[in-house]
């Protein structure tokens, strides 16, 4: 029995009620088998009149009803339990925040919160009621057998424990072998998947047909190995099967002989014959449901590992193993433990009551900020000091991995400095209520996520903008034209992860999101024109220029057109600012991009 | 697909069980025998007890006693045999299905450009054959044989009772499973969108975490996910209700059938012995029949999986094999692409629209352009993994339409889009491009791809790929380059995916690509311009059309995509 699951089932009233109904119905239905055997043996032996078939039918009906009730309650238990766990998981994901979900782990979590929890179904609907029945019904049968016929009762009493004992013994012996074999089997599936995935590569080198024979050989070898193991593994079920059926023989033959001698009446004999197998059935049912149930236990373990991660500590200190920055870098910075506290919506939390920075377009000041990711020697940002004046437009340039995105994430509050501090409008970002602070920002990430909802809802994300405002924002972001051409215009639902829009169109929807926050004072753009062709880029640059008007803007850029609209160009390399110049002096075209040559502003000239 | 192998593959894929017939019959026989032994055990025991109550001489019971013991022992043994034979058959059938699927996939097309998820699902779907046998077919056969035996036995004792039993068994064994199958199909049609909706909401929460946090929309997204969960839970509860009803009906049919048989037998004045045998065999004969409802439920999923596999097999290959392929081209190759038009989707503009280029022996041509411009489509058209709508590809003046795609690919190939690392050693991963190559040649290919230092650290025999050592983007490209160099085709195609690499790595790889292609007929697709001064011609592809072509110096001098990219590259790598 899973400890955490049981705790949860007790704590959640809905789950507890359904689970109780399910278990009670299962046990009652199991006990009614005794009544059924009683009546049937009575009628067959002539001990009861034919009219006793009526109560027999009633018992059958009651069993059917209870069985149905058990099924319904089990389904309700399972879905309620899954909902509780799923909501817990999702709330936990939200609390983790963007900086702590690595690409790898996030995929795992998506699966767990979706189909993964369905593995609980066989555990809840099959295994749990079976365990309850196995705990009650064999005992009840034994009691009745002792009352009816001592000899039979003793035989059943002696053989009954053989089932769990042999099950455990043989199971224990074959467990290791079978587990290895299941892994081998999944490798076989893996091999096939591997070959199918690599088929284009095999095709390119004329090896595709040859590989077919390899698939055949691998499958053959694995089948032979699997069958060798199964011959042993199935011995356990052979033993159990033999115990159950031989016990019936052990009961039936002596009973027959005693009937012959007249020391037993037919009614008792038939009752014994009908009841004896019922003692074994519940125990074997637990065994057959065990394997499927264990998958559910694994899913539950996984879920509670994630949930306890949230509830064990009271401070949301990022776990170094599990934290990560979204985007290019793999891990999140370790926040200073002293400065994180009980509350907060992400890795950055406030000690003192959250303050609000002075209203208006803010000045941004970084004072000797160092951001360090666990497991990495080099700091992502290394002792960076920087002032961005209110209303200034700054372009960040540099190699990928230089720390540009980290700088944006710092201003967003996704990561916090290990050393130094970030001041916005003169207030330490750490003391701000992050929700309030973020309301003053408009952010366009490098790879914006489009949600599986309408285009309009994607643009209005997080606000209650009117349809007119949404249209205006789309127009400003040069998105209105393609949105009009969509089958249902602004109400078109974009596919999962925005699959049915091109990269340029996705980028423009994300930009429209920023436009839909007319009150935003700080604009943070992460390579808004990456992966766009020239024409889309020109549209975005124009839109961005309009958006940046009257706001402070920090733009990670790598294309000349985008860099051109900045007042200042800051080059970041290996976590440090290596140059910081105004971007206003036009210069002739350079001959070639020699590494290290020329200041970035030297050719920040619009050439088209 | 008109090659003999292709036809065999189709035929084989169409029939999952040809090589397993005998074993399947053995498994069915063992399963049926196990159930019959169970039936025999209860019949013999019932007869033994009721007959003993009449106190006949002991000798009259001896046969029954022996029968009880024999049935009790043999039931377990038959069951053991069934499980072994059944799993053996299932594994063989699955292997055959996979082989058939694989051979159907060899000609490019059926799974074309679909994602990894779809491939995983196809592999999972091949498991359905196992379920079809072990969880549907074998239990159904055993149940049918047992039911037939019980009805036959009943017919000898009391035909009227046998009819009652037959009716009960038909309801429990045919009607209920049929309803369960239909219901499962209907439910999965309703559950699938609800599941997909929930999955999309969850994915939104996770993958859109940054957007949600920045825009303060996390709470709403969480609510939307909770609503999707509630909708799914409501459907699941209703499905559970339907399944519970099927279960309850089964129990009801079993119990009422037994009661009715007893009633019929007593009304007919059948003796106590026969009545007991009739009632108890009826009771037990339902045991293999009742689980068929669950099997029917599973059958709906199995049939859906098999239907998906059939659909994949029925998809025609992207490039048809010519009826009478021309002789494979020999000698140094000249490839002329002439006004080529490739269209992936009839409803959309062509991916390549009137592209022409010529590759004479030793000539190096580079193709640049924004992503989605058709660069990789051009390579895959040359490799004959994508068909073309009009225009032509001439290999030594023979149209590629008249050549076998395999023959074209054997000569025009190289580093393709999305190269793959197999879960195998570095040696095997490399050797697939040169099965006959000796150690020296392998080492040489690695050296030229600048992968020798890495190979020295990693080792030649360390497993790579999913469970093995991870391979970085740059190393993967270099491994693919080493394969291409080892294979040494007449026309070398190089698809350089700089997007996955950072600037320094991309430039280093690019330099090496240009270095090793000196003197080879090469078509290079690239996103980085650094070093393209040395190639014979550069083609700028935008929106499927050639917008610029010429030498580096000419392109840099003219305004356009090339010059823009050149400038931005200068900025970011300075």
UniProtKB/TrEMBL annotation, chain A:
Main location: membrane
Spans through the membrane: 47-66, 124-147, 153-172, 232-257
UniProt subcellular location: Cell membrane
Keyword annotations from UniProtKB, A to Z: ATP-binding, Membrane, Nucleotide-binding, Transmembrane, Transmembrane helix
Biased composition (Pro residues): 585-594
Domain ABC transporter: 364-599
Domain ABC transmembrane type-1: 20-295
Top-level taxon of origin: Bacteria
SMART domains linked to this entry: AAA
Name of the protein this chain belongs to: Thiol reductant ABC exporter subunit CydD
Organism (species): Sphaerisporangium corydalis
Gene that encodes it: cydD
UniProtKB/TrEMBL annotation, chain B:
Protein's recorded name: Thiol reductant ABC exporter subunit CydC
Compartments reported by the entry: Cell membrane
Record keyword Cell division present: no
Primary residence: membrane
Annotated gene: cydC
Record key words, sorted: ATP-binding, Coiled coil, Membrane, Nucleotide-binding, Transmembrane, Transmembrane helix
Domain of life, source organism: Bacteria
Transmembrane segments: 21-49, 55-72, 132-151, 157-180, 244-265
Domain ABC transmembrane type-1: 25-286
Domain ABC transporter: 335-568
Topology class, membrane: Multi-pass membrane protein
NCBIfam families in the cross-refs: CydC
Coiled coil regions, renumbered to chain: 218-245
């Amino acid at each position: 029995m899973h400890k955490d699951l049981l705790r949860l089932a007790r704590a959640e009233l809905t789950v507890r009620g359904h689970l109780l109904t399910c278990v009670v119905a299962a046990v009652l239905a199991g006990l009614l088998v005794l009544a059924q055997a009683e009546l049937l043996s009575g009628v067959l032996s002539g001990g009861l009149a034919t009219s006793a078939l009526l109560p027999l039918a009633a018992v059958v009906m009651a069993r059917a009803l209870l069985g149905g009730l058990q099924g319904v309650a089990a389904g309700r238990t399972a879905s309620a339990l899954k909902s509780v766990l799923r909501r817990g998981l999702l709330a936990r994901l939200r609390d983790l925040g963007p900086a702590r979900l690595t690409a790898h782990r996030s995929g795992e979590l998506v699966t767990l919160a979706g189909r993964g929890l369905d593995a609980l179904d066989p555990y809840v609907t099959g295994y749990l009621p079976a365990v309850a029945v196995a705990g009650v019904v064999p005992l009840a049968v034994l009691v009745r057998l002792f009352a009816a016929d001592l000899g039979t009762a003793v035989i059943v009493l002696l053989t009954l424990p053989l089932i769990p004992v042999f099950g455990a013994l043989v199971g224990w012996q074959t467990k290791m072998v079978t587990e290895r074999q299941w892994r081998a089997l999944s490798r076989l599936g893996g091999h096939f998947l591997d070959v199918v995935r690599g088929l284009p590569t095999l095709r390119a080198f004329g090896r595709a047909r040859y590989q077919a024979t390899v698939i055949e050989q691998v499958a053959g070898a694995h089948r032979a190995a699997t069958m060798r193991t199964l011959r042993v593994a199935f011995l356990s079920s052979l033993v159990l099967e033999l115990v159950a059926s031989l016990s019936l023989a052990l009961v039936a033959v002596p009973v027959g002989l005693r009937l012959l001698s007249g020391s037993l009446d037919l009614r008792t004999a038939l009752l014994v014959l009908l009841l004896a197998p019922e003692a074994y059935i519940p125990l074997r049912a637990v065994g057959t449901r065990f394997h499927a149930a264990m998958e559910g236990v694994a899913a539950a373990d996984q879920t509670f590992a994630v949930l306890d991660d949230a509830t064990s500590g009271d401070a949301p200190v990022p776990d170094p193993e599990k934290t990560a920055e979204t985007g290019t870098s793999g891990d999140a910075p370790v926040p200073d433990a002293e400065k994180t506290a009980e509350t907060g919506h992400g890795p950055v939390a406030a000690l003192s009551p959250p303050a609000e920075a002075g209203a208006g377009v803010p000045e941004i000041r970084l004072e000797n900020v160092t951001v360090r990711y666990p497991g990495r020697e080099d700091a992502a940002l290394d002792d960076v000091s920087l002032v961005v004046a209110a209303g200034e437009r700054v372009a960040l340039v540099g190699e990928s991995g230089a720390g540009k995105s980290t700088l944006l994430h710092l201003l967003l509050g996704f990561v916090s400095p290990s050393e130094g501090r970030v001041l916005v409008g003169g207030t330490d970002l750490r003391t701000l209520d992050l929700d309030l602070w973020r309301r003053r920002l408009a952010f366009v990430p490098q790879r914006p996520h489009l949600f599986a909802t309408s285009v309009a809802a994607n643009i209005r994300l997080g606000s209650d903008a009117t349809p007119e405002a949404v249209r205006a924002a789309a127009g400003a972001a040069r998105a209105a034209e393609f949105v009009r051409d969509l089958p249902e215009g602004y109400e078109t639902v974009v596919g999962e992860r925005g699959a049915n829009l091109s990269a340029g169109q996705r980028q423009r929807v994300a930009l429209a999101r920023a436009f839909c926050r007319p009150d935003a004072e700080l604009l943070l753009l992460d390579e808004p024109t990456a992966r766009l062709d020239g024409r889309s880029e020109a549209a975005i640059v124009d839109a961005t220029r309009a958006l940046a008007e009257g706001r402070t803007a920090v733009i990670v850029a790598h294309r000349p057109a985008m860099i051109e609209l900045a007042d200042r160009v800051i080059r970041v390399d290996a976590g440090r600012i290596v140059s910081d110049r105004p971007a206003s002096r036009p210069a002739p075209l350079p001959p070639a991009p020699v590494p290290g040559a020329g200041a970035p502003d030297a050719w920040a000239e619009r050439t088209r | 697909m008109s090659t003999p192998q292709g036809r065999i593959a189709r035929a084989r894929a169409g029939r999952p069980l040809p090589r397993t017939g005998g074993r399947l019959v053995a498994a069915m026989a063992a399963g049926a025998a196990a159930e019959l032994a169970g039936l025999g055990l209860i019949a013999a025991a019932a007869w033994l007890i009721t007959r003993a109550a009449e106190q006949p001489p002991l000798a009259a019971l001896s046969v029954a006693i022996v029968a009880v013991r024999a049935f009790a022992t043999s039931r377990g043994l038959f069951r053991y045999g069934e499980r072994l034979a059944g799993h053996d058959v299932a594994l063989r059938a699955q292997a055959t299905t996979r082989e058939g699927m694989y051979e159907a996939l060899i000609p490019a097309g059926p799974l074309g450009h679909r994602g990894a998820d779809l491939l995983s699902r196809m592999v999972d779907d091949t498991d359905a054959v196992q379920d079809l046998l072990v969880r549907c077919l074998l239990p159904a056969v055993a149940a049918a044989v047992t039911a037939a035996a019980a009805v036959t036995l009943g017919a000898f004792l009391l035909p009227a009772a046998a009819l009652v039993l037959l009716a009960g068994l038909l309801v429990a064994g045919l009607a209920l499973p049929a309803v369960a199958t239909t219901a499962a199909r209907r439910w999965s049609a309703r559950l699938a969108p609800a599941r997909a909706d929930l999955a999309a909401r969850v994915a939104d929460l996770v993958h859109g975490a940054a957007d949600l946090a920045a825009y303060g929309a996390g709470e709403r997204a969480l609510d939307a996910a909770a609503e999707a969960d509630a909708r799914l839970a409501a459907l699941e509860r209703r499905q559970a209700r339907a399944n519970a009803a099927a279960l309850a009906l089964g129990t009801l049919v079993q119990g009422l059938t037994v009661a009715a048989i007893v009633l019929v037998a007593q009304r007919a004045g059948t003796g106590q012995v026969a009545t007991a045998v009739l009632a108890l065999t009826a009771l037990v004969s339902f045991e293999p029949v009742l689980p068929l409802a669950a099997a029917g439920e599973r059958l709906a999923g199995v049939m859906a999986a098999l239907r998906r596999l059939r659909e994949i097999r029925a998809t025609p290959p992207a490039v048809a094999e010519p009826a009478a392929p021309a002789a494979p081209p020999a000698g140094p190759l000249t490839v002329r692409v002439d006004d080529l038009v490739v269209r992936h989707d009839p409803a959309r503009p062509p991916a390549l629209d009137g592209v022409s280029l010529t590759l004479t022996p030793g000539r190096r041509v580079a193709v640049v352009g924004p992503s989605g411009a058709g660069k990789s489509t051009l390579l895959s058209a040359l490799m004959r993994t994508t068909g073309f709508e009009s225009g032509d590809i001439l290999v030594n003046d023979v149209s590629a339409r008249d050549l076998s795609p395999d023959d074209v690919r054997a000569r025009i190939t190289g580093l393709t889009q999305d190269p793959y690392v197999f879960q195998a050693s570095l040696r095997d991963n490399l050797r697939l491009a040169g099965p006959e190559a000796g150690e020296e040649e392998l080492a040489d290919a690695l050296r030229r791809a600048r992968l020798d230092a890495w190979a020295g650290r990693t080792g030649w025999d360390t497993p790579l790929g999913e469970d093995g050592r991870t391979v970085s983007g740059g190393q993967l490209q270099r491994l693919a380059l080493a394969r291409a160099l080892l294979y040494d085709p007449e026309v070398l195609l190089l698809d350089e995916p700089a997007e996955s690499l950072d600037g320094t790595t991309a430039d280093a790889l690019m330099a090496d690509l240009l270095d090793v292609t000196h003197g080879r007929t090469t078509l290079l697709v690239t996103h980085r311009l650094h070093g393209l001064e040395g190639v014979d011609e550069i083609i700028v592809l935008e929106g499927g059309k050639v917008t610029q072509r010429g030498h580096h110096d000419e392109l840099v001098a003219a305004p356009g995509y090339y010059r823009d990219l050149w400038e931005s590259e200068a900025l970011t790598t300075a």
